[in-house]
Every structure is written in structure tokens, then in C-alpha cells.
Amino acid sequence: RCYVLRFYCPSFDIHPTVLPPFESYVALVPLIVVLWMIVLSSFRVYRSQRMLRRTDEAFLILRAHVVSMLMFIAIAYMFSEYKYSRVMIVYFGVLGGLMLIGFRLALRNLLRHFRRQGHNLRHVIAIGEGKTLLDLLHKMERFPEIGLRIVGVIVSDTSEAQSIGGKKVLGRFQDIEQIVQSDTCDEVLLQLPKEL
User: Fold this and answer.
1) For residues 115 and 76, what is the distance between their CA atoms, to the nearest angstrom?
2) For residues 156 and 39, what is the distance between their CA atoms, to the nearest angstrom?
3) For position 175, what pLDDT does the model report?
4) Does the global pTM surpass 0.85?
């Protein structure tokens, strides 16, 4: 697509008399796939980002894409005798970044829809005390698309509560290690008041 835009787009006044071989650009595909996978993995883009805002996730992907582009340009010009069109590389950088962000946000919205329906959930134990813990529980209830289901809470050793915010108290702070190891939970959320 970038090749067609660069060498066939009528908006450019300068066109090469002889089109560069398409095979020279196709040969870069394995390098692009491997390089982008490595960089995106190092930036932890493939990890679940359900607690991250859309804008933060978009910037994370954009940073990884920019780093990938810089490494790709360096490798392509360092180890190849053929010099690739700079305009085509710019096209690739812009379109590639937009497509990566667009695909990720579309996938994110799809997963959020499934989570609202009760699928793709993570079972969580909340650890905390007082109003801060209640605020966390209410937030999880208000935003089911996050996909975190509270299975119970762990409170301070001095608390006598049996349930908080409709969630069963599984134990006290001193029991954290035992509860986390014995209970079937995927994550632990810690929400403590500032005075603690």
C-alpha cells in the first residue's frame, strides 16, 4: 500500500522514470515483523492494559512504533546496498502507526464489550481499609468493562467486619500470604488509606 502511494500517487510531481522493483520492498517484510514483535514486546504492548486509559495506551504503542521505525531505518540503510525511498518510509511510519493504534483500540473496545457480558474476567482479591477500599469496590462495580471481579476482601487485623461493600471478608492482613496462595485469584489490588 505504501509502495503504491509513493510511486503511483498523482499528488507527487516527481516520479521515477523506472519504478524500483517491488520485490526489494517485499523482502523487508520478515525484518519488519520480527523487529516490531521484539520492540512491542519489550515495551509490554502485548500485555493486558485493561487498567490503562485509551490515550495512555495509544502513546505507549506510538512510542514503541517510533523506536521500531528508527531501528528499521538504521538496519535498512546500514546493511542494504539498495536505498529505499524516504517518502515511502514516511508513509509506512505514519500509516503503520495509525493502523497499530486503530487495531489495538478496536480490540480493546471489543474485549470491553465481552467483559460487560461476563466473559474474559480476572478474579481479584482487594486488600485495604475504610473509605478507600469502599471506593475501589464501587469503582469495580461501576465499570464492569474493566473485567475485574472482586471475590473477597482482606482488611486490617483490628477490623471486625464480615463484609465490606457486599464483598465477603476473607481474612486479615496477617493472613494475606495464606489466603492469596490458597484462593483462586488472578490479581491482588491494594488500596490503603494514607494514614496507614
Assistant:
1) 42
2) 42
3) 86
4) no
